[in-house]
Design goal:
β5, α8 and β6 form a beta-alpha-beta unit. The chain is built from 34 helices and 17 strands. It has five domains: about 200 residues, P-loop containing nucleotide triphosphate hydrolases (Rossmann fold), CATH 3.40.50.300; about 200 residues, 3-Layer(aba) Sandwich (Rossmann fold); about 100 residues, Orthogonal Bundle (Arc Repressor Mutant, subunit A), CATH 1.10.10.10; about 70 residues, DNA polymerase, domain 1 (Orthogonal Bundle), CATH 1.10.150.80; about 100 residues, Arc Repressor Mutant, subunit A (Orthogonal Bundle), CATH 1.10.10.1390. α19 packs across α21. It is α/β, with parallel strands linked by helices and about 725 residues long. The chain is globular, with a radius of gyration of 32 Å.
Length: about 725
């Protein structure tokens, strides 16, 4: 069956330059080479792709790889071509190709030059493609991201359930299914649908010991994200959001705070998404803010952090997305922001969907809530979800999560677990968590009334505790192995053998207090940049800054405000910037100002901080993003083209007043603008000279003094424009 006589190890060295396989790769490859159906479950970064790429190169014919995303295919094809001289070694066939390109692919496949052909499931269903594939020799079929088959998977695709019948039409060949996230239920679903129940199962540990898991209350999340990105400048990171709007907002905010960032979502065309993906892979940008579509199959080894601004819809999604971090074995920091409001929002999304889909979606959300609110080892919780046991004391990465590193107090929980198990058993192991906790606290609801919960011997036995408390005990009982959830019954609780033994012979069990996220403020409160807000200025330092400003102004024969405006000094006295990148986050300070005047101010502040042993806050000022700031570049470009204010307003969707305000801010921050054409519309040279002289002698930051001095001689807008010209010419 093999084209070459090399062993898998020899072929690995020959084709990829590696001497050793990772984990279970060799077992999976050997199974495929022997013509067996093979099911590979490996965590993200475990090297799943190699499991089908190497045998494809070793076997006669072309391997067909079914993949769900165009971006994923492109990434895989680019990576493979990088290891081979002939680019025809691999191709993809999907909707992104025009007719001529598709024909070229088919010619290469027919000639035998192509060893691996990636196809989208939608492409596979087309009759013309089925007929074409019948005409070529297929070595085997690989179904990548196989969790897409299952309704219980986090990314269910109905077209994936049609793969098996189509494969039967094409050829009688082995199938390899691969996924990074398969719970026992999803695994069962995949095997059943692909008719590979008796396949060779290769399952690697889901434990990514190098990843640090952390869940934070969703309070000032945007500010925290900006701070994290700034403190990790130059390191790669991915930030996930549920909505396109939030992706754009966070991306813009990071950008104005000096982070190299790009947004990625389905609202952008294919070419743009491909360009963004390449920019990230090539390290042209540090951070990608994205919806969940980004990242499937992205092999960027040095992602150092993954942040979930919005909590995902399932733990499978969460696991897969966090798995983008630390694929090189280095550290990876996984932060998720969590609030009940986000869960409520996701629950609303389920409304209107078929009942079965609602039930599944609701159960998946319950698992997410449980993960976020648990106080036990997050690693242990995750691995238990995927059917794997973990020693939270001595296991690899045992202390690598917030709960393990900063544990909550524990209490004796024997009596509580006895009560839970007893209630589950009395009610014939036929109810979910919510029913059991309602019975224990004596809470009447429709289900309790329908199933005679009030007649239970456990009715109101847990009074004095909340449903949240009892749900926490149930969650810990599941992880400890006293209870399990029935897969086919949408989360119904049943006793395990261990649970039955416990009922007969109870032993001491220590439980952890659950975390409480109910009163989280979900607003994105940014540090304000107006005088008197965002902190208390250091009066001593501010006076020193004022003195320095006056000295420089006198030396240069300029009004002090031309150097730095009062608001800038206020913020310097609050936030103690000592580096240029910190100074650039101060209101009214742009690159020009920072370069021209910044050094002396930074030196003064650094000396003051050192002499007074001041501990600077980590939450240095964060700039907010707005529509105005996004128009900044456009306004500068249009002024360079000598366009007037009305035309600029029309092109930016701003009104004339807003454009003028933006111009004032641009110049105040240190950017030089030539606005002579705007002034020449209404003023001659004598007027310009008169006003220029006035502003050079005035110490007033605004135009109030000018309005009084010249009364009705000039309009307010004329005075504002002249002040802009003065600042631009003499200060920038």
């Amino acid at each position: 069956m093999s084209l070459i006589d090399d062993s898998p190890k020899e072929a690995l060295q020959k084709y990829f330059g590696f001497k050793e396989f990772k984990g279970e790769q060799e077992i999976a490859i050997q199974s495929i080479l022997e013509g067996k159906d093979t099911f590979v479950i490996m965590p993200t970064g475990g090297g799943k792709s190699m499991c089908y790429q190497l045998p494809a190169l070793m076997l006669d014919g072309v391997a067909l790889v079914v993949s769900p995303l165009i971006a994923l295919m492109k990434n895989q094809v680019d990576a493979l071509r990088g290891n081979h001289e002939d680019p025809s070694i691999t191709h993809y066939l999907n909707s992104s190709l025009n007719k001529a390109e598709a024909e070229t692919v088919k010619l290469d496949v027919s000639s035998g030059r192509t060893k691996i052909l990636y196809v989208a499931p939608e492409t596979l269903t087309k009759e013309t493609n089925i007929e074409f594939l019948k005409s070529v020799k297929i070595s085997f079929v690989a179904v990548d991201e196989a969790h897409c088959i299952s309704e219980w998977g986090h990314d269910f695709r109905p077209e994936y359930r049609r793969i098996r019948p189509i494969i039967k039409q094409i050829a009688d060949v082995p199938i390899i299914a691969l996924t990074a996230t398969a719970t026992p239920k999803v695994q069962q679903d995949i095997q059943k649908n692909l008719q590979m129940v008796n396949s060779t199962l290769i399952k690697s540990s889901f434990n990514r010991e190098n990843l640090y898991y952390e869940v934070k209350p969703k309070k000032d999340a945007l500010k925290q994200i900006v701070q994290h990105c700034i403190s990790n400048k130059g390191r790669s990171g991915i930030i996930y959001c549920l909505s396109r709007k939030k992706v754009d907002q966070i991306s813009e905010t990071l950008s104005v705070n000096g982070i190299k960032v790009l947004p990625y979502h389905a609202g952008k065309d294919t070419k743009t998404r491909s360009r963004i993906q390449d920019a990230f892979l090539m390290q042209d940008v540090d951070v990608i803010v994205a919806t969940i579509a980004f990242g499937m199959g992205i092999d960027k080894p040095d992602v150092r952090y993954v942040i979930h601004y919005d909590i995902p819809k399932s733990l499978e999604s969460y696991y897969q997305e966090t798995g983008r971090a630390g694929r090189d074995g280095g550290d990876g920091h996984c932060i998720a922001f969590y609030s009940h409001k986000d869960i409520e929002k996701l629950e609303k999304f389920l409304q209107g969907k078929p009942l079965a889909e609602q039930e599944i979606g609701s159960q998946l959300l319950q698992e997410v809530m449980s993960y976020a609110e648990t106080s036990i080892s997050r690693r242990k919780f995750l691995l238990h979800y995927f059917g794997e046991e973990f020693d939270e004391i001595n296991g690899p990465g045992a202390k690598n999560c917030d709960n393990s590193r900063y544990p909550k107090p524990q209490y004796e929980g024997k009596d509580e677990i006895l009560m839970i198990l007893g209630a589950v058993k009395e009610h014939k192991e036929d109810h979910k968590m919510q029913f059991i906790s309602a019975v224990l606290i004596g809470e009447s609801n429709r289900e309790v009334d329908d199933y005679n919960g009030k007649n239970s011997s456990f009715w109101n036995k847990g009074k004095g505790k909340t449903d949240r408390y009892w749900n926490g005990v149930i969650r810990q009982s599941l992880v400890l192995g006293y209870l399990k959830k029935e897969i086919e019954k949408y989360g119904v609780l049943t006793l395990t053998e261990k649970g039955n033994t416990f009922l007969e012979n109870p032993v001491s069990v220590m439980l952890a207090e659950e975390r409480d996220y109910r009163d989280v403020d979900t607003g994105d409160k940014m540090v304000q940049t107006r005088r008197g807000q965002g902190g208390v200025a250091d009066d001593t330092l501010r006076k020193m800054l004022v003195t320095l400003r006056k000295d420089i102004a006198d030396q240069k024969s300029l009004p002090p405000y031309v150097i730095f405006q009062d608001i800038s000094l206020d913020e310097m006295a609050i936030h103690y910037p000592i580096k240029e990148e910190e100074l650039l986050r101060i209101s009214g300070v742009g690159t020009g100002k920072a370069k021209k005047f910044g050094a002396m101010f930074l030196a003064l502040i650094a000396k003051y901080v050192d002499e007074n042993k001041i501990e600077r806050a980590d939450d240095l000022l964060v700039r907010t993003s707005s529509k105005k700031s996004s128009d900044k570049v456009s306004i500068i470009q249009q002024i360079d083209r000598k366009m007037n204010l009305d035309d600029i307003a029309a092109r930016t969707s701003l009104n004339r007043e807003a454009v003028l305000c933006e111009i004032e801010q641009i110049v105040a921050a240190g950017t030089k603008l030539n606005i002579s054409h705007l002034i020449e519309e209404s003023m001659d040279e004598d007027c310009v000279e008169e006003l220029f002289e006035f502003f050079s002698e005035s110490e007033d930051e605004g135009i109030e003094a000018a309005l009084i001095e010249f009364e009705d001689s000039y309009s307010e807008n004329e005075l504002r424009l002249m002040r802009v010209k003065f600042l631009s010419d003499v200060a920038n």
